[in-house]
Amino acid sequence: MLTLRRSKCLLWGIIALFMLSIVPIPAQASDYGSQDLTLNSRGAAVTQLQKDLALLGYYTYSIDGFFGPKTLDAVKGFQKSQKLKVDGIVGPKTKAALNKILKGSVSPKVAASAKPPTAASISHYNKHEKPIVDSFRKNFDGSLAQTLVGRAIWYMEYGFMKYGHSKYPTTGYIDCSNFVSLVYKDFGYSITSAAKNYGSVGKKVAGVYSQKIPGTSKYTLVGIEKLKPGDIFTFWNSDAPARTHIGHVAIYMGKINGKPCIINTCKGNPTAIGIIDDFSYWYGSNLIEVRRVLPNSAYVPGNKITDKGPVIPAKYQIKPDKPIIMPKDLRTGF
Length: 334
What we know:
Elements: H1 2-22, H2 44-55, H3 69-81, H4 92-102, E1 110-115, H5 119-127, H6 129-138, H7 144-158, E2 162-163, H8 168-171, E3 173-174, H9 176-185, E4 203-204, E5 209-212, E6 219-222, E7 232-236, E8 246-256, E9 259-265, E10 273-276, H10 282-285, E11 287-292, E12 316-318
Parallel strand pairs: 1-12, 2-3
Antiparallel strand pairs: 4-11, 5-6, 7-8, 7-11, 8-9, 9-10
Helix pairs in contact: 7-9
């Protein structure tokens, strides 16, 4: 009987470990201490506060554990967005509001085979994508064009998309043209999800092309000054027979940190989405043209924006490694 009981305990232990492997562990509440945090406060509680405000996009400075004027401004910004008393004091109500958002507002369903992002991919993201996103966020103007790019960033950070040729809303898989289509549809623009048909999407942006650098195997992008955020880059297919149709598409983000950047499906990132800022090789040699869908009004800050998204898939194929925070709870929406 004792052996049987031990066997049952072992069995239930294995089942419990298996369940933990496929169900995301709920986020733990941040510990801001029992005392109110105010101007000139110091310590671990302030450090945690700064990290959380940074995650939500309100704090963009160094994490130093000191509640100075910059932290005060970040707290007030958060309080204003949550319709709390804007006094800069992190008391019970502000702490509760922070923790409610940081726990995430989505209870994701995750495929049994899903795995979390690898440490190597996260390291790559922090070194390459994060500085670009941080710079874009600091210069965000609230126009429809930049909001659309911001949504693409949100999907990169919170969509937990896995590459595959099926519809993201029902499967959690995404490919390049489905990604561009998904982002645009969030704002009421119906665009094909077939890459080969992107040659008829919008209008061609004249004067933008790639050019081989004489004496080298590298390419450079010409006509950057003619580009606008939200423009769609098209590239040749690589599968045989090659260069017969459009095989890849991407969304232009703008010139960030001195380089033109596009966001698209690519390898080596925590999810299927990443940022490219180098057109020296494949992205230069295979560029076809750039198409523009958005009207002139999309580049004017302050205009009304219709937002239908974001889309939460029926299940995730990548196990979320952090709470899924919706755009409305992030300072810039991404």
